[in-house]
Every structure is written in C-alpha cells, then in structure tokens.
Amino acid sequence: MTEIKQTITKGQAVDIADAELFNENVKAVDYTGQEVRYNSSRTSFKPKKEVVDRTSLNNKISVDNIYGWGDRYKTSLYVDGDRHGEGVRVVGYAAQYDKDDRHREKTGGFSIYFDSEEQIIDFAERCLDTLAVKKEKGYLFKQYDGGHPDMHNHFPSLLERTMCETGRYYWDGSLNKVVEITQDTPQEVLDMHPNYNTDEEGNFEQDYWNEKAEDKLKGLETGASLNWQGEDYMGINLANLLTGGYYKDGYFAAKVRNPEDKRKKMWLTTFFYQDGTEVSLEGKWDLLDTGVLRRITWNE
Asked: 222 φ, ψ to 5°?
C-alpha cells in the first residue's frame, strides 16, 4: 500500500499560511488613498497574494446529505462497507433532542464515499497538508499580532494622501504612487474620486474640503523644507506617517504610566511611520488642519 504522508514541505506550508493571512487581513484603498469600508461602491485596489491551492482533491469524492442542527445534539462517526459498489463510506450522524433529552427534534447526517485506495490516500494527504498549513498559520498569527506586516504597504503616506485630497492627484494602489490628474486621466478615475469636484460645465473646481487639504499640504511641505525642526513639527516627519493602519492619520495619544512615578499617569502621543518604526512625544499632541503639530495642554 502506498505510504500516506504530507505532500508539502514546511517552507511551502509557511508560504501558504502567510499568503492566506495576508489575503484575509489586507484592506482595499480608493483613489484618495483612504481605506474602503465594507459594502462601498467606490472603485478600489486590493492586492492579493497568489497561493497554490492544496485543498482540492485529485480524485472526485461523492458527499451527500449534509444538514444543520442546533445546540442539543448527539453525534456519531464511523466507517463501513455498507454501500453499493466496492468502496467504503464515512458516515456522520447528529440528532438534536428536546430539553428533557427524550425526543429527537431534528436529525442530520452525511456520507462520504471512497471508491478506491487512491481516493482514500488523496483525501488523507490533503488533510495532512491542511493541518500543516493550519499549524503554521497559528504560529504566524501570533507572530504578526493578529494581522499581517504587509497589509498596509499599498496605502499612501500622510503627505501623499493629502495631495489626493486636494483633488489634483489620485492614488494608484497598484503602482503604490501618487499620480497627477491630467487630461489623459481615465474618466473612471475622475468619476470614482471622492475628492475630485467639477463645476456645472464639468471643469475641475475645488470645494471647501479641497482647500483645507491645500492648507495642510502647504504645512507639510514647509515642515519638509525645515527638516521638521521647530515647535510646529517637534522633529516628527509628518509626511511619512502611516495612514493605512489602525490610526487614520498615523498617530495616537493615550494615557500611560509615568516611568518616573508609577502612581501617576501621563499623556503620550505615538507616531507611526510607513517603515514600521515609531516615535513618541510626551503630552497630548494633535495634527492641525494647517499641517502642523500642537500640544493640547488644556485637555491633558
């Protein structure tokens, strides 16, 4: 009899698990660089890692009579040869009982038919492959802290997103770059760009929100020219903040234990960069519409 064994290597299992976690956690991005929420009609880009399908069977196996049931049930599972043909079957059965555990209210079951040794081996090997992937996926899930390190790589920086919010640019997630809107820009992009506005004649015309984005963009460009020095920037490179993470603008303020006096708490603002690094400032800081930082002392 042919030996039943796992058909993929540990490395292949890790690659498959990594790709599955990425595809499960990656978010879609629209033409402004914003994350697209569920059930949105906005055109977006969502990357997907290709992975070799190791779940399908080489040999077709017949399955029938699959039902659902409630919470109070009893089950059984067995293999027998009581079927038409030369093969065997795996039979599963479940019965749901009433609250007195006397009468069956619902029953359900399934039968899987194996007609040959090849089918049984194929099925068993796929189970071993799937188990190997599941184990590696569990390890990676913990290592990745419930997400995936690459799931926001196709999102823009704060500077790039602000450029798109002016309505003069759009974000191309597939190229991972800001593209200037010109006469050659596809109409689909213009139609689906939330921040691209036109007048009655169809010409581009900035609205209030576009102008606010222009003000922020000017502040960010000034910060870059000053190498982010001064009280308006505090050494924080605002242009490279990560926008596709848990925090929309790439920073978060929270109260933490004061390292000098554990009995007291203090405000700490943490800034998250696209390269995965982070920097913290003592105090509660906010990014103003003018593209500069201010400490919100009255709310500390």
From this structure: -65, -40
The residue type of 146 is: G
108 C-beta neighbours (distance < 10 Å), count: 16
CA distance 146 to 246: 13
Using DSSP bridges, classify how beta strands 261-272 and 278-282 pair: parallel, antiparallel or unpaired: antiparallel
Q: How many CA atoms lie within 13 A of 172 on its CB side?
A: 11
| pTM for this model (two decimals) | 0.76
Q: Is 180 helix (H, G, I), strand (E, B) or coil?
A: strand
Distance CA(167)–CA(257), nearest Å, equals 42
Alpha-carbon Rg for the chain in angstroms? 28
Q: At what angle do helices 208-225 and 158-165 cross, to 10 degrees?
A: 150
Token pair listed for 242: 């990560």
- For residue 63, what are the β-bridge partners? 112
Residue 66 has pLDDT above 50, yes or no: no
How many C-beta atoms lie closer than 10 Å to residue 114's C-beta? 21
- Classify 196 in phi/psi space as left (phi over 0), alpha (psi -120 to 50) or beta: beta
The tens digit of pLDDT for each residue in 168-181 reads: 999 999 999 999 99
